[in-house]
Amino acid sequence: MTIPETIELILSREPDIIAAEDCYDMIRSLDRQAAIGYTKRLLPVTAKLIQESKSSDYLKAVELRKDLLLYIAPNEFDSFLQYIEYDRDYNRRFYLPRRKQLLPLVKILQSMADDELDELFLSTPPRIGKTTLILLFILWIMGRDSEKANLYSSYGDKNCKAFYTGALEVLTDKDTYLYYNVFPQKKIVHTDAKDELINLDRRKKYASLTCRSLEGALNGSCDCDGILVADDMIEGIETALSPSRLLSVWLKVDNNLLTRAKETAKIIWIGTRWALEDVHGVRLDVLKNEPKFAHKRFTVTNIPALDENDESNFFYQHELGFSTEYYQAKRASHERNNDMASWLAQYCGEPIEREGAVFNPDDMRFYNGELPNLIPDRVFMACDPAFGGSDFCTAAYCYQYGDEVYVHNVTYNNGEKTVTQPDIVNKIIQYEVQAARFEATKATASYKEEIEKALKAKGYRLNITTHGSALTSSTDASKTIKGKQARIFDKAAEIREFYFLEDGKRTKEYQAFMQNVYSFKVLGKNKQGDDAPDCLAMVADMAHGGIVTAVSIFRRTF
C-alpha cells in the first residue's frame, strides 16, 4: 500500500490522536503541494479530537492542530490568521471569534494572493475588522515575498499612522503573535515612524510597506509591485456630495496614487460608498467600459449590516461585533433623524443618489464660525415647528449684514415640544434674536403661542409673526407638498448665497440639518423630508422682506 493510500485509509476511519499524529508524519514525507492538500483534510479531524478528547489526549490534539496550521500558514491565509494568534487567550484573538463572518473575505484575498484576482472593491459597515484583516493580509504577503513593495494609502495621515503602528505591533510583539514561526527567516531591518516605512530583510529604496496619505508625498517616495490598499479615499459626506470635490479626489488617486502601482500590482479598494461618482464608482466604470482594461480581473464585495432576514451579518462569538438589535436600533435612529441616506451608505453599501438635487456643496458659501466684526443689521430666526415623530422642528438663527446672511446655528430635532421649545427659547435669548417668524397651521399655531409665553416669563420681548399662507394651506397633502417644493426651488438661488458653518465647525444637529438640505430634490419624492430647506426658504423671505436696523440705548448728549 502506498503512502497516499495509507493516508486515505486513516482519514476514512476517523482516527484517534495517535493515528492522526502518524498520519501527519506520513503526510510530511510527500511533496509540499500534495502534503498541503492532505494537511487541510486532517485539520477538521483535529478540531473534532479537541472537542471530544479525554484530558490525557486534549493537549496532544491542540498541539497537533497548531503544527498543522503552521505547516499550511505560508501558503494559506486562513491558516496563517488562525496560527499567529494560537497562543493568545481565545477571547482576545482577532480572527477566530470572527472567522465565520470574515471567511468569505479571507477566501477572496487568498484568490488575490494566488493571482486569480487583480482588484477588489470592499464595502462593509464600519468597525467590523476589515482594515485589521487587510493589515494582516499585507503582513502575510510581506512574509511570502519581502522584496515586493506594498503601499497603504488613505485620505488623511491619521489612518496611515494607525496602519503603520498596527503592522509594527504584529512584527515586534513576539509574545502575542507567532509571525516569525511562520516566516523564521524574516527580520525587520529598517523602520521610519516619520515616513511610515517598514523594511524586511534588507533596506530598499521602496520599502516592504509604505503608509502614505493621498495628500502626502507619493511621487518618487514610494512604489508598489505588491498590494496597493486604497482605504477611505473620501473624507466624508461633504466631499461625497460635491461633484467638483469628488473629481479632485479622483484626479489625485488617478495621477498620484495609481501611478505608483506597477502593472503587476494588486489593488484593494476599501471605503464607504457615499456617492455613485466616488473613487470606487469611477474606477469600476473604467474597468467595465474601457477596452484597454478588459484583462483586469476584479470583484465587488458588499456585505450590509443586516441580511435578508434583517439579522446582523457581524455578530461574532463572545458577543463581539454588533448584534441584530444594535443595527436595527441604528437604523431606527437614522429613520428618526430623516437621514436614511447615511444609513444606506455606511451600513448597506448603497451610494447616495444625487440626481435632481437642488443644493450642492460646490454652490454653497461657508464660514469658519467667526462672524464679521460689525454690528449686524438684525438678528432673526425662522422656525417650522413640529411635535416630534417623523417631523422635525427646524429653526435657523441668522445674522444679517446688508444682503449677507449668516446661518449661525440651528434647531433640528424630532423630539417632543418639551424638548424643542426650551431649546428654541434658550437660543433666542442667547443670540438676542430681534424678529422671529413661525410657520403655523391650525395644528401648530399653539406652538408659537407657548414660545411667546415662555419668553415673556423670562422677561424677553420679541416680535413674532406667522407665515400666513400656511394657515390656509390646501387639505390635499400632495398639493401642499408640491407647494413647499415650489417655494424652496423659488428661493434656492437666495439660499445658496447664505453663509453656513463649514464642515468641522458644526454641531451634530447642524450637520444633520445640512444633510437634509443636500438631500432635497425638486423632482420626485424627498425620502429624507424637506424640513431644513423649507425653513431656509422662510429665512430667504425674511431676509429680503426689508431690513430692520439694530436698536441700541445711549445717553443723551444735550
Briefly summarize what is shown.
By secondary structure, the chain is of the alpha/beta class.
Structure notes:
The protein is built from 20 helices and 15 strands. The chain has 4 domains: 1-72, no CATH class; 90-318, Rossmann fold, CATH 3.40.50.300; 323-348, no CATH class; 361-543, Nucleotidyltransferase, domain 5 (2-Layer Sandwich). Strand 4 and strand 5 form a beta hairpin. An 8-stranded mixed sheet has the order 3-4-5-2-6-7-1-8, covered by helices on one side. Helix 1 (3-12) runs antiparallel to helix 2, helix 2 packs parallel to helix 4 (55-72) and helix 15 (417-430) crosses helix 16. It is of the alpha/beta class and 558 residues long. The radius of gyration is 31 Å and the shape is elongated. It is 44% helix and 14% strand.
List the helices and strands and how they pair.
Layout: H1 3-12, H2 17-27, H3 32-52, H4 55-72, H5 77-84, H6 99-113, E1 119-123, H7 130-144, E2 150-154, H8 157-172, H9 179-182, E3 188-192, E4 197-200, E5 209-211, E6 227-231, H10 237-240, H11 243-257, E7 266-270, H12 279-289, E8 298-302, H13 324-336, H14 340-348, E9 365-367, E10 378-384, E11 393-401, E12 404-413, H15 417-430, E13 435-439, H16 445-457, E14 463-467, H17 468-471, H18 477-496, E15 499-501, H19 508-518, H20 531-543
Parallel strand pairs: 1-7, 1-8, 2-5, 2-6, 6-7, 9-15, 10-13, 12-15, 13-14
Antiparallel strand pairs: 3-4, 4-5, 10-11, 11-12
Helix pairs in contact: 1-2, 2-3, 2-4, 3-4, 4-5, 6-7, 7-8, 13-14, 15-16, 18-20
